[in-house]
Every structure is written in structure tokens, then in C-alpha cells.
Write a structure and sequence with these properties.
The complex is a heterodimer of chains A (254) and B (333). Chain A has 13 helices and no strands. Chain A has 254 residues and is mostly helical. Chain B is of the alpha/beta class and 333 residues long. Chain B is built from 12 helices and 14 strands. In chain B, the strands form 3 sheets. In chain B, strands 6-7-8-3-9-10 form a 6-stranded mixed beta sheet, with helices on both faces. Chain B has a 4-stranded antiparallel beta sheet with strand order 2-1-4-5, covered by helices on one side. In chain B, helix 8 packs across helix 11. The chains are: A mainly alpha (254), B alpha/beta (333). At the A-B interface, helix 1 and helix 5 of A face helix 2 and helix 3 of B.
């Protein structure tokens, strides 16, 4: 176990070094969510606030910007693993006595760290735009931690596909399936305004609870039930995606 | 205890694709063992099984007395491997890559910086140590890959075609490091190569692999002596018809042991080659054929390869380049 943690740390540092040396790759992950956040709030903020009875639509949208940032940044682990496989470096890592799980967890942990930093930045931008943060500084820490842990769990999809297929296109599927999940959550309007079929889909969608947990921190302060459901969703999703990662790793090893 | 032992080792990717078809190996500690064969002969698959990257379909293999399937983790910690493609991470610098390898191989943290510096010195990469790997030439990457394979002082090192595609100077440096490490530290090397002359010069023992099977094994001297004849090469003017007629003509020579037709001539295995040359040329003349060039030589490993497999390694590689996948899959009909 000690070795697995150490190996994960070393491989995480290596993955983060890649990000530091290729900062241009992060520009889209920062720019796109902030752009959509600004445009959405600017275009429909006033009318949506009146229509849905939401006092602070900027704050209502801020978690969506954070989650869009998470979706963009969460694909890096899978793509990086495909690159390692293609250039033979993954085989070199497999030849070391490093814990097998660390070969995946190193990159996933790096995604978690990057997503925490990205989320903190988007959060600051949101506050500057006037979203407010009812739960205060500690709430900001919890929101960032929630984004990071969700990102780590979500990155598992791209990682599992990368390990199983060795294909960059497949690894990017993780990014693509996020948007249906986001649009099937109360991203733009409270769930009560949905058609019954959409409300049902939103109820079984784990992203709904993460959106509501983050939103509670921004708009209401501390709501234990909302936060509990959000973290339970993240744990459930993490258990599912990590199982896929382990199966992917098994297919890559002798 | 042998450094590497294999019995009936096989890897079948399907009933028709027998990449390795039941081979036996016994490589003593401290040896440089050469594994020779054309593309697709099963060399790389064998290396991948011995280094725990592939699970054998049948048979067993041990490295330093450890079964490669049941004690894969222990095997990995005691071997060094440089695969055919120098699989490196080009975002890192040479020093960072070696340091990461050292950490993953559990080298004591207090020793890592010194060990990395020592290896960079050994492979002449001190000046480039802090440059990113994407700026390294192919030869530099191979040397770094070799250094990464040695970072934890393994007892057995597997090198899969470590010199293929390198210029002669880089090739010579790799072989120099291998010979030096073998001599000074007793490291056992198991290496695959297509360069027969180098294998002849450096390897204590070699095995020739062809279509998944070992067709000859022994020291280069033993293998060359096993031919037991001189080698007379006759380059013939003309095309396929002339070559076929030349083969028929030289077969009429009483002292001939064997004949092989190659791209541009025939190779005759004869006793007392110096006296046979004139008779062979005369036989060609009687068949209205002309030899452009005649050479007499003691057998080389290339002759051993040709005799055991029916084809030249170099000619095979050219064909393989044109049709990389065709002959790589399974046994000759």
C-alpha cells in the first residue's frame, strides 16, 4: 500500500509536469466555461431569473461553469495514457515493479489536482461576476474539493476506455457523454419546471445532485442533505468508474 | 542456476498465428546471449514473455530462478528491459526520466541523484541531461533507454534490437556499453539483433529463430564450425532463369555439400574451396553462364543463418519492410 501511494505520487508529479510544460492545452478548459457562463447569464439571466423565481441567476449558473471546466479537464488522463501506450512508455512503466493501480491513479490524481486549480479559478471569476458565495471561504474549499473529486471520478471513464482500447478517439468519449448528463440535470432551470419525463431523467442522473450540492453552497449556505447527496453521487460514480479502470488495467497487463 | 530458462515456451495468438512455438532456452549467468531472427520470427514476442509483458500460451520460463508468470513482480524488480522502440516520455528531460525510473524501481532516495549522474556519464548524455527528450536524436534516445534499463543495477538485462536503425557510431557505442557492463559487473544480457556481424563479435552464445522456432543454438564458433565447409559465392549475370540453371550446373560438382540460391547468385558449400573454385566456374561456363564475381570465405553467421533458414537475414529485412505484416504471422506452410 505504501508503495502504491508513493508510486501514484511520483506518476502524478510527472503528469502535472506535462501540464506545466504545455500550458496552452489548458486555455480552452478555462476559456470555454467562462465564455458560456458570461453569455448565458448576459443573454437570459434577467428573464430566467424572473421566469424561474431565482434571485441570483449568476450564482445559479456558476456551478455549471465549474462543471463544464471539470468536463474539459477530465479527459487529460485518458488522452495522456493513450499517448503513453502509443509511444511505448506505458510498456516501460509496466516493466517496473510499480503498483499496477498507480499507473492509472497517477494520471487520475493529476487530473484531480488540475481540476481543483481550474475550479478555484472559475469560482473566483464567478464571484467577480457577482455570483456570491453564501457558504463563505470554507464553502469555497468544499466546492473545489467536490469539483476535484468529481473530476477524478469522471476521468476514470476516459482512463478505462484508454486502457481498454488504446485509442484517443475512444478516450475522448468520456468528454462527450458529459454534456447529455449536464443537460439532463437542472443546469439552466430548477427541476420543478421540467416536463415529467425530463424530471425523471434528472432525478436518476448523478450530475443533478452534484449541481444541486454546489448550488446550495453558492446560493443557500450549508445544506447537509444536498451536500450528502452530492458526495454520495461522487462516491457511487467513482466506484463505478474505478471498477472500469481496474478492468481496463487488467486487459493491459499479462 | 541459469539466468534464463525456458521449456516449451509458446505464444499462440490464434490457432493459425503461432508467434512462438515451443522453444527451449538455457542462458547461464554472466553471458551475452544473442537472439537472431528476421522480423516476425518471434524474437520480440519471446522477449515480451520473458519480461512478464505477455502471458505464455504454453510452457514455462524462469528468470533468475523465478517463474515469469507466478512471480512476475519479483522478476520485474530484478531485470532491466529496453524494448524495440525506445519508449520514452518526450516531455521529460533525460535526468527526470531516469530519476522517475529509479523511484519506481525502489532505488533508495539518497542514492538516486548519484546513480542518475553516473548513468548519464556512462552513456555520454551528461551535456543533454536537462534537455527535453523530444530534442534527442534516435541514438541518444536509445542510449538513455539503455540507461533507464540499468538504473536499479539489474542482474539480467533484455535488449530488444537495441541498435536497429542507428548509425554505425551510435551502434558501436551501445555495443561497447553492453560489453563493458558484462565484463565489469557480470550483467547477463539477452539481446535480439539483426546485425549478425555484431552478434558474432560480442555474443557468447546465439540462437537463431525462424517462424517461431529455434533452428540453431550455440556459440558463434560452434555454429560456424557446424557448417564444416568453405563457402564459395558466385554472382551470376542474368535473371531467375540463369540462377536456376546455375544451381543445376554447380550441383554437378562432386565435392558440393549444399547450394543456396540467393537474389543475385548461388552460394556453394564445398570442401577445400580454393581448389573447387576453378571447377565451379568451368561448370558455369559449360552451361553458358558467366560469374560476375567469385568469393571464397570461411563460413560466417550469415552463412549459418542462410543454411538453417533458407534465406539471408538482410534480404529478409528488405522484404519485411515492403510487406511488414505478411510473413510475421505463423509458420511457413
Amino acid at each position: 500500500m505504501r508503495h502504491a501511494i508513493g508510486d501514484t505520487y511520483f506518476l502524478m508529479i510527472r503528469a502535472l509536469r506535462e501540464t506545466v510544460r504545455q500550458p496552452a492545452l489548458e486555455i480552452g478548459n478555462v476559456f470555454i466555461p467562462i465564455f458560456f457562463f458570461a453569455v448565458t447569464v448576459g443573454a437570459i439571466g434577467n428573464s430566467a431569473a424572473r421566469a424561474f423565481g431565482v434571485d441570483n441567476y449568476t450564482g445559479f449558473q456558476m456551478p455549471i461553469a465549474v462543471l463544464q471546466g471539470v468536463a474539459g479537464a477530465a479527459g487529460v488522463a485518458g488522452i495522456g495514457t493513450v499517448t503513453d501506450i502509443e509511444r511505448g512508455y506505458f510498456d516501460k512503466l509496466l516493466l517496473t515493479p510499480a503498483a499496477r493501480i498507480s499507473l492509472a491513479m497517477g494520471r487520475l490524481a493529476a487530473d484531480g489536482v488540475r481540476i481543483c486549480l481550474l475550479s478555484a479559478f472559475i469560482l473566483v471569476v464567478g464571484i467577480v461576476f457577482g455570483s456570491g458565495l453564501e457558504s463563505g471561504p470554507l464553502g469555497a474549499v468544499v466546492l473545489v474539493a467536490m469539483a476535484g473529486s468529481f473530476g477524478l471520478a469522471y476521468s476514470g471513464i476516459g482512463m478505462a476506455l484508454a486502457l481498454k482500447t488504446g485509442s484517443a478517439q475512444a478516450a475522448q468519449l468520456g468528454f462527450l457523454i458529459f454534456f447529455p448528463l449536464l443537460f439532463l440535470s437542472p443546469a439552466f432551470a430548477p427541476k420543478e419546471f421540467f416536463a415529467p419525463w425530463l424530471e425523471f431523467l434528472a432525478t436518476i442522473n448523478p450530475v443533478t445532485y452534484i449541481v444541486e450540492g454546489m448550488r446550495s453552497l453558492v446560493l443557500e449556505g450549508w445544506d447537509a442533505a444536498a451536500l450528502g447527496k452530492a458526495f454520495a453521487s461522487i462516491v457511487a460514480m467513482g466506484a463505478f468508474t474505478m471498477t472500469l479502470v481496474l478492468l481496463g488495467l487488467r486487459s493491459r497487463t499479462a | 542456476m541459469p539466468a534464463i530458462l525456458a521449456e516449451g515456451l509458446a505464444k499462440h495468438f490464434s490457432p493459425d498465428i503461432k508467434a512462438v512455438d515451443g522453444i527451449a532456452l538455457d542462458v547461464p549467468e554472466g553471458q551475452i546471449f544473442g537472439f537472431l531472427g528476421a522480423n516476425g520470427s518471434g524474437k520480440t514476442t519471446t522477449v515480451r514473455m520473458l519480461t512478464t509483458l505477455l502471458r505464455p500460451t504454453a510452457g514455462r520460463a524462469e528468470v533468475l530462478g523465478l517463474d515469469v508468470t507466478h512471480h512476475a513482480g519479483e522478476v520485474r524488480s530484478r531485470i532491466g528491459v529496453a524494448l524495440q522502440e525506445a519508449g520514452l516520455d518526450d516531455i521529460q528531460t533525460g535526468r527526470e526520466l531516469l530519476a522517475l525510473s529509479a523511484r519506481l524501481y525502489r532505488v533508495a532516495p539518497s542514492e538516486i541523484a548519484e546513480r542518475v549522474a553516473q548513468l548519464l556519464r556512462i552513456v555520454d548524455l551528461e551535456d543533454a541531461a536537462d534537455r527535453r527528450l523530444k530534442t534527442y536524436s534516435g541514438g541518444m534516445q536509445r542510449r538513455l533507454d539503455l540507461a533507464a534499463a540499468l538504473v536499479h543495477r539489474p542482474s539480467v538485462v533484455f535488449l530488444d534490437e537495441p541498435t536497429t536503425g542507428l548509425d554505425p557510431i551510435s551502434r558501436d557505442s551501445i555495443w561497447r556499453y553492453v560489453a563493458e557492463l558484462n565484463r565489469s559487473e557480470g550483467v547477463t544480457f539477452f539481446l535480439t539483433t539483426q546485425y549478425l556481424e555484431e552478434a558474432d563479435r560480442l555474443c557468447h552464445d546465439v540462437a537463431i529463430m525462424d517462424y517461431g522456432r529455434i533452428v540453431a543454438q550455440g556459440s558463434p564458433e560452434e555454429l560456424k564450425a557446424s557448417i564444416g565447409t568453405d563457402v564459395v559465392s558466385l554472382r551470376i549475370e542474368g535473371g531467375a532463369d540463369e540462377l536456376a540453371r546455375a544451381e543445376q550446373a554447380v550441383r554437378r560438382f562432386e565435392g558440393i555439400e549444399d547450394v543456396r540460391v540467393v537474389d543475385d547468385g548461388v552460394i556453394c558449400y564445398v570442401r577445400e574451396g580454393s581448389s573447387a573454385i576453378a571447377k565451379l566456374v568451368l561448370l558455369l561456363d559449360e552451361a553458358s553462364l558467366r560469374a560476375k564475381e567469385v568469393t571464397l570465405a570461411r563460413p560466417s553467421l550469415d552463412d549459418v543463418f542462410l543454411k538453417k533458414t533458407g534465406h539471408h537475414l538482410e534480404a529478409d529485412e528488405a522484404a519485411a519492410a515492403a510487406d511488414a505484416t505478411g510473413r510475421a504471422r505463423g509458420r511457413r506452410p
